[in-house]
């Protein structure tokens, strides 16, 4: 019975870090890794760097039929087990809500929120009692973020969806982990609207290494933990958001965002 992992946004950054660590056995033996990303050439280069067979899916998950193509590929297999689904693909937009094109925000919501829901639905029938879903949320999900409103809301959705789904599936031995990293020095910042502002804000909170985030997230998933916050600083911030009244927390957030755009 072949056992696979599926990774979206696999060709660079955190997704590539996940894929390389899976190749090294971070989640046990895998017969194949299914890697999803937009660029076929990057997937081909990734495959050449691995010892585990990689099946590339050059798909844009903002397109309505993309997840269906993965579902169709699963249906063609016999006795396939999905040990791990990693919903990682994403991009962002910094700036005032009114300044971001509507189509950009709509695509972001589809990629960050709807695509993980669709893929989880399609993949669950192929999972076993010890399978895992790992959803990449963000420290931006901890509270509403001015000038990052749609992104933070979409990441909050995936955080809450993950925790609810974990509670539903725990009785059958399947666990869902949401990982909430802070900024990482990856191509993500280059692909955001107003990437200069994104970089300024990232420097305020500091960067995490994708390899470290991937290692901590995979360990949390193996242990069946519902939440993984890799950064001690962000764990403190998360605790603070549970204590401070929302208006005070929002004022502090706006002060930080104001510094980032000065």
TrEMBL record:
The keyword Metal-binding is annotated on this UniProt entry: no
Keyword Translocase attributed: no
| Gene Ontology molecular-function annotations | oxidoreductase activity
Which GO cellular component terms are attached? membrane
InterPro entries given for it?
NAD(P)-bd_dom_sf (IPR036291), SDR_fam (IPR002347)
Alphabetic keyword roster: Oxidoreductase
* Entry similarity comment: Belongs to the short-chain dehydrogenases/reductases (SDR) family.
Q: What is this protein called?
A: SDR family NAD(P)-dependent oxidoreductase
| Organism, scientific name | Candidatus Coprovicinus avistercoris
Source lineage = Bacteria, Bacillati, Actinomycetota, Coriobacteriia, Coriobacteriales
